[in-house]
Amino acid sequence: MTQLPDAPASPLFPDGTNPVTPLVVTIHPDAAGQRLDRALADAVPDLSRSRLQALIAAGCVREGERTVEDASTKVKPGQRFEIRVPPPVRAEPEPQAIGLDIVYEDPHLIVIDKPAGLVVHPAAGNPDGTLVNALLAHCGAQLSGIGGVARPGIVHRLDKETSGLMVVAKTDAAHKALSAQFADRTLSRTYLALVWGRPSPSAGTIEGAIGRDPRNRQRMAIVKAGGKPARTHYRVLRPAGAEASLVTCKLDTGRTHQIRVHMTSIGHPLIGDPVYGRRPRSAIANETARSFPRQALHAAKLRFRHPADQRELEFTRPLPGDMRHLLVSLAGEDRIPEY
């Protein structure tokens, strides 16, 4: 194994960054037929096999221009792999003055409308510039320790490219009470999504345990074993032109990528989804939809009991500008029926 001082500047992280020089491993003939994670662990003693499995799952290992996605891949002599080890994430995120769209705030909690593109908490590839960094700056030391130092106050999360409503706890008591509402499903979340095609029936429930896709560890999938139970209720609100629909999705569970996986499983992936979506084959497909840069998913409604006085709170947030423009381009108007 050698470390190249002048590695190419091509991005290697899933988020497009390239902050460190890669470790380059060329497979020795003695390692032929071994699993990739084992061969790399033997070549790079400083990285454990489990750490390498995590790096592979995070998209940090490549062979040429191809991202390697399966740690169990059998290697061949002469194959050359690049390993990009992310810089360590601080155990305690630093406050950063990042603007927040605050929908509601009191001494117990804060409700924000998260924009697409904002990561919720620091992780490999996103060490700062996250919602947590912004919350620490806004709330000060009050959030320390709530939910753990890496995710202070975070009760639930949204994917980086999903926009919409989130509730964040400002006290330990609020965190415990809100987490309990998620667990017993009394906290209600409704999403608006633009999907390809016209779901039939127009309303229904999708059930299927969600776990890591055995064929691609960077994706989630409905799996037969080892997944977590998941249930999504969907309803078509209106057609969006001839090729798409505006739907609502309500969650009984909160699994990773749940709506994206479930809607794809019934043949109606979200427009713009870079992982689970697929463009229609029709030659007349709307170009705005075909080039939409994120999954068209917005957390539009949030309802829960206030952890201090038990009053019911409900918040709604309209479609952000990019999704509204997409709806107009597909349907000719931005009318959204009651949901």
Automatic annotation (TrEMBL):
It is an enzyme of class 5 (isomerase). Pfam families: PseudoU_synth_2, S4. The active site is at D159. GO terms for biological process: enzyme-directed rRNA pseudouridine synthesis. It comes from the Bacteria. CDD domains: PseudoU_synth_RluA_like (cd02869), S4 (cd00165). The keyword Transport does not apply. Gene3D superfamilies: Pseudouridine synthase, RNA-binding S4 domain. Responsible for synthesis of pseudouridine from uracil at positions 1911, 1915 and 1917 in 23S ribosomal RNA. This is Pseudouridine synthase. The lineage of its organism: Bacteria, Pseudomonadati, Pseudomonadota, Alphaproteobacteria, Rhodospirillales.
